[in-house]
Amino acid sequence: MASLPKRIIKETEKLVSDPVPGITAEPHDDNLRYFQVTIEGPEQSPYEDGVFKLELFLPDDYPMEAPKVRFLTKIYHPNIDRLGRICLDVLKTNWSPALQIRTVLLSIQALLASPNPNDPLANDVAEDWIKNEEGAKAKAREWTKLYAKKKPE
Amino acid sequence: MSKVPRNFRLLEELEKGEKGFGPESCSYGLADSDDITMTKWNGTILGPPHSNHENRIYSLSIECGPNYPDSPPKVTFISKINLPCVNQTTGEVQTDFHTLRDWKRAYTMETLLLDLRKEMATPANKKLRQPKEGETF
Prior knowledge:
The complex is a heterodimer of chains A (153) and B (137).
Chain A: H1 6-17, E1 23-28, E2 31-40, E3 51-57, E4 68-71, H2 101-113, H3 123-131, H4 133-147
Antiparallel strand pairs in A: 1-2, 2-3, 3-4
Helix pairs in contact in A: 3-4
Chain B: H1 6-19, E1 26-30, E2 40-46, E3 57-63, E4 74-77, H2 98-101, H3 109-120
Antiparallel strand pairs in B: 1-2, 2-3, 3-4
């Protein structure tokens, strides 16, 4: 396997030694560019008490190109589609090599805290969110209970 | 080159299929747009010209297992077709079909569909008698 760039090694070490509260990210043994991620739903959001699994991959051109990230846990959110794909500016047009895995995961956590139905990826969910915010949030809470339940310690 | 994991590879293929960046002679997409594992896919092949397949559209199902793309997908014709590499009872493309047998990680569902289309057009296969259009396995 091609050797791993120093930058990726450093980022990985820091994610393990100094983790972000509520977020874990661990590389797979057989592919050090491929991470298994969990993000806890932010407090006061419909995702509170949920733990969401994601996967993250650093393409060959990282950090010139943004990491690729996807939810593996089903989630009811206007900016996340049914396949777990995420609509987030820092993953697309606003990516900068100065950002890191850590900042991307924090941005995703922030997206859970403040959904943006005016820039939707999942159109049906966004419509629901705009027309009936309380109902949509209730459904998001229900899905969190159904699919993102915390494992008992 | 680093190894693109299965799911991100399938997302790339999905995007290419959805946006229609691929060739016009075949298409593919997720069978169930809710399936987070992205296992089951539908494919179509437009029969090659100057053959008994001309103007026919063949439907296929493609199953990308957990080891895709290290292992090839399982491909089955839904539309009835008479081809030596296709099991005439189940419609399944036999695993000794060269693209499946000599599968490489760089191959995609598109590679497979295009190779099957080429197979339909080989001198030995293009004049094979075909079942009535619209029949399924």
